[in-house]
């Protein structure tokens, strides 16, 4: 009962602050009531890089349907046409044919040279968009086609190009030292105004190649406080609220709350290089001692999915291809001392860590916790300073493909190998998955790689998080996207 009571008090306090958060902008483009046909959106994270598409801010541009990429991903993670209508591979090169009739928000037509400029700027940026980590990309325009060349054959290149960080903008966006997305996209809504980290406004772009949007525009307010975002929905100050905290969702009208499985898994990574968990039998003992059901029902109040593996229900094909595995025999902890690290940035993780501490103590381990902000703990985690590390991790990354996540986290060459795993069998399975062609062959190889990782007990998957989104009663057609790339689409409007 403690959490709902405290949440209700916080929600009341947050409501007092909403008038200031949702005040109209000086030019009339704010989020106040009375603007017919516009959609008011409360978003969690303010821009960090001036809405540059070369940063994580690119996902905001995608969620507002203002900047677009050559391809998009379908529910299975396969590439589908967007600004490009077709593509073909020739060894280390892929040639993309552009869609006719596309114009930028400044009125200029989309050309192959525009695509070359945007993708070259991304490929030579410092730092690069993460989807291009380790990729040497050459871009050459010719007529209505663009040819992209990599150092080695890349079966995943079309999926990579779906990343919002590889959006195509007009020449005007690149006149300064930073990339400016205001009025330079190709989407259904034209970005007209950005007020620092406070708000943004977009108007319908009537020249959109995909047809006229149903809403007249979008008014965005950035509200980092989750209680305030939930209150914005409850008080009618916002039409769409992203990332409603689990602790607040139960306090809202449940008809206004939508939950969608997302490709994000809470996993306990066990240090296989040093400390007690060098012993596979003790890793097996930890895995056997952990019961994630109380975490799902208690900490996440039923708004999460119990993990059967590293890949959850948001990866729609994973469960049907997952092989049966036989658990390794467990040893006796006999008081072995372990330290679990985690961070406070995701509110539920410290509570999950406390529950795991109790379960592992009951199994015979001596357990200490080290909880800090993520910025203060990441370096130690990557260096293997903890016996175990609790992390909420996206499992398909920007390409929509789990192979990149598995390689990053569990390969002996992986850049995010918290388990310090160096297993020849796992490495071989990961290489096979990374090299497999897109489609069923790649999916089966990915699931074989997952099985190889889980057989080592280097990671104990706990649960899969869900996107919890609030839509007011009059909202029609808002996207509920597990990859969090779409939110307001051309079909979204408020009655």
From TrEMBL:
Pfam families: SBP_bac_5. Keywords: Signal. Residues 80-414 form the Solute-binding protein family domain. GO terms for molecular function: peptide transmembrane transporter activity. GO terms for cellular component: ATP-binding cassette (ABC) transporter complex; periplasmic space. It comes from the Bacteria. Residues 1-23 form the signal peptide. One of its GO terms (biological process) is peptide transport. PANTHER family: MONOACYL PHOSPHATIDYLINOSITOL TETRAMANNOSIDE-BINDING PROTEIN LPQW-RELATED (PTHR30290:SF65), PERIPLASMIC BINDING COMPONENT OF ABC TRANSPORTER (PTHR30290). This is ABC transporter substrate-binding protein. It comes from Streptomyces kanasensis.
């Amino acid at each position: 009962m403690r959490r709902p009571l405290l949440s209700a008090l916080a929600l009341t306090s947050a409501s007092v602050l909403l008038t200031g958060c949702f005040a109209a902008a000086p030019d009339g483009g704010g989020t106040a009531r009375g603007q017919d046909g516009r959609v008011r959106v409360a978003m969690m994270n303010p821009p960090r890089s001036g809405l540059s598409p070369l940063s994580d801010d690119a996902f905001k541009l995608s969620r507002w349907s203002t900047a677009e990429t050559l391809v998009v991903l379908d529910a299975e993670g396969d590439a589908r046409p967007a600004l490009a209508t077709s593509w073909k591979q020739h060894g280390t090169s892929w040639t993309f044919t552009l869609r006719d009739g596309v114009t930028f928000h400044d009125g200029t037509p989309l050309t192959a040279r525009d695509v070359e400029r945007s993708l070259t700027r991304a490929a030579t940026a410092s730092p690069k968009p993460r989807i291009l980590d380790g990729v040497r990309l050459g871009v050459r325009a010719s007529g209505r086609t663009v040819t992209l060349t990599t150092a080695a054959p890349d079966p995943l290149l079309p999926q990579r190009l779906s990343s919002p960080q590889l959006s195509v903008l007009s020449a005007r966006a690149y006149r300064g030292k930073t990339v400016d997305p205001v009025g330079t996209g190709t989407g259904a809504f034209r970005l007209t105004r950005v007020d620092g980290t406070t708000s943004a406004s977009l108007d319908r772009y009537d020249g959109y190649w995909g047809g006229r949007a149903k809403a007249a525009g979008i008014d965005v307010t950035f509200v980092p406080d989750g209680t305030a975002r939930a209150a914005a929905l409850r008080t009618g100050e916002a039409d769409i609220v992203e990332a409603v905290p689990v602790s607040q969702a139960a306090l809202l009208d449940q008809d206004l709350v939508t939950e969608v499985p997302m490709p994000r898994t809470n996993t306990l990574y066990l240090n296989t290089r040093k400390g007690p968990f060098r012993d596979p039998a003790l890793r097996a003992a930890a895995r056997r001692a952990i019961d994630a059901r109380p975490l799902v029902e208690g900490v996440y109040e039923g708004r999460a999915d119990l993990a059967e593996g590293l890949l959850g229900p948001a990866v729609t094909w994973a469960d049907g291809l997952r092989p049966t595995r036989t658990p390794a025999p467990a040893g006796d902890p006999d008081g072995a001392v372990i330290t679990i690290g985690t961070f406070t940035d995701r509110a539920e993780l410290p509570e999950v860590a406390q529950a795991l501490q109790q379960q592992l103590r009951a199994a015979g381990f001596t357990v200490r916790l080290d909880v800090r902000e993520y910025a203060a703990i990441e370096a130690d985690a990557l260096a293997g300073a903890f016996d175990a590390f609790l992390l909420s991790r996206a499992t398909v990354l920007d390409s929509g493909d789990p192979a990149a996540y598995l390689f990053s986290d569990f390969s002996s060459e992986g850049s995010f190998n918290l388990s310090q795993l160096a297993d020849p069998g796992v490495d071989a399975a990961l290489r096979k998955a990374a090299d497999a062609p897109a489609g069923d062959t790649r999916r089966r190889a990915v699931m074989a790689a997952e099985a190889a990782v889980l057989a080592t007990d280097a990671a104990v998957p706990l649960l899969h998080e869900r996107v919890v989104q609030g839509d007011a009663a009059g909202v029609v057609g808002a996207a509920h996207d597990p990859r969090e790339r779409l939110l307001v689409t051309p079909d979204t409007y408020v009655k």
